[in-house]
Amino acid sequence: MSHSPSPPGAVQLCYEGVNGSCIKTPYSPGARVLLYAAFGLGTVLAVFGNLLVVTAILHFKQLHSPANFLLASLACADFLVGVTVMPFSMVRSVESCWYFGARFCALHSCCDVAFCYSSLFHLCCISIDRYIAVTDPLVYPTKFTVSVSGMCVSISWILPLVYSGAVFYTGVSNDGMEELVSALNCIGGCQIVVNQDW
Question: How far apart are CA 59 and CA 57, in angstroms?
């Protein structure tokens, strides 16, 4: 069974023959290969680079310090971005279609927001830690203790997880935007709309 190529200028759909399918904007084969190679390399580096950081900090006792536990937690957040977000976003970016279903779209978006925000929270805590270490080095060991580091790690995980869960699983982020949501919804798309309040 062979497929005849679409005539030039014809509209391509994510799901041919499906009513309500999203419009596909394909790249040329050469560009697709280059994009997959670049995005794939970035994903592999994110996964294995952060896994190496976590393993090194947890394995070597010399690296067990409050600041390094914060770094290991940041590497965990970035590792999870590399595993749960980047591969699927790569396919969506190159193919311009979402082929993984509507339920997984919500989970993917929830993971994207949660882990990226967690990474940002960790970076904020690390910058505060470094600021204290530079400006007040003599009392730094008494200010940034294991319990303070644990509190920073807890906040950096709990707040983003609660926020992303509330935004994507309660439906409150769509309040007042029902018309826009219905206009954007098509089969093969993963458009998440969040109102200004959220």
Answer: 6
